[in-house]
Amino acid sequence: MTTEITTEITSETTEESTMETITTSELLTTITS
């Protein structure tokens, strides 16, 4: 059970980080343009 819970938390954190990275990239692109 513990492993499953940890995996879920890790997946959510990874998704959040990815979204933040994408958003930052879009902002940089907009500023550069």
UniProtKB/TrEMBL annotation:
Compositional bias annotation for Low complexity: 1-12, 19-33
Disordered: region residues: 1-33
Name of this chain's protein: Uncharacterized protein
